[in-house]
Amino acid sequence: MIITSLMKFPVKKVWNKEWIDHLFLFIVFLSIFMICESASAAPPFMDFEGVGGGGIVPGSYLVNPPEEGKLIGMPAVSHWSLIGGGNNVYTNGFAFSFLKRFELGYVIEIADFHRLRRNLRHDSNGDVNVKKGTIYMNNIHFKTLFIEEMKYFPAFAVTAEFKFNDTIAEMNKNIGHALDTVGYDDSHGIDIDFTFSKTINDLFHLPSIINMPCIINGNLRLTRARYLGFLGFSSDYTLNKELSVEFLPNPKFAFGYEFRQQNDKFGALPLKDCSMNENTFWDFNIAFFPNDEFSLALAYTRFGNIVNKDIDFFVCNLKYDF
Known about the structure:
The chain is mainly beta. It has helices at 2-7, 17-34, 114-123, 166-174, and strands spanning 76-83, 89-98, 102-112, 134-147, 155-164, 188-200, 214-225, 233-250, 253-260, 281-288, 294-305, 310-321. The chain has one domain: monomeric porin ompg (Porin). It has four helices and twelve strands. A twelve-stranded antiparallel barrel has the order 1-2-3-4-5-6-7-8-9-10-11-12. A hairpin with a 2-residue loop joins β8 (233-250) and β9.
């Protein structure tokens, strides 16, 4: 399945105008990183898909890296709850780092689909019944840190996220393969993340009253996922921009903003308001670090349209480093 996904990569489409725009913006992000001095490596955040980074955006830093003299670090475990609009999402996973260059992790992602199931049955007079009310997706990631953070240069890492979603294949079969007509192609796919991360002590040398460490994660994601993969994967890759900015007024508290583009390549379903549009995913968040092992994060998140309704999530994350 993995080889099949990679063979579908659209090599001839790489250097179109959209990709050049992505590259230009990423060079701008990189320029910002390079004009500021670094702090020490950032707190070991872990995003909702299990990758070391922010909340919805991956980063280059490794989760719970090995102590000096050790080859393998202790594992970290994480739980995310995204609650809102009858479309709740939960993720549970773990990750660990080894050889000071690599990170490996697994997450089970669970999406409550009951609201949409009811809507589809009602709007189709019972003809569209996906039967299942919950989607389960497995996500295994492997990160390689290619460049460690230096004084005037960010860390750079590449991460492969292998996503497997057999539930959506069964649901699509239950509705007569209706998703095939709007862009669904696979129940599995691979996201590739190209990530720069920088921790800055003195952002633009502002007065000390507002000086505080700042963590910036800039990511370009190659993906075929639709609705993050919860509604499957199309046949063509797109390149999406992602950015996370977190401020740390003190070592036990952080706040920030993130955004993550989505593909928005699905066609509309022939039912009421089922535009299938995908919007930019963003959040405002705060995080607490009562000790070196435990963290708690809260966020308000705008996911945007989920098939036929805009959804806002209230988010809670618990993470523990062993």
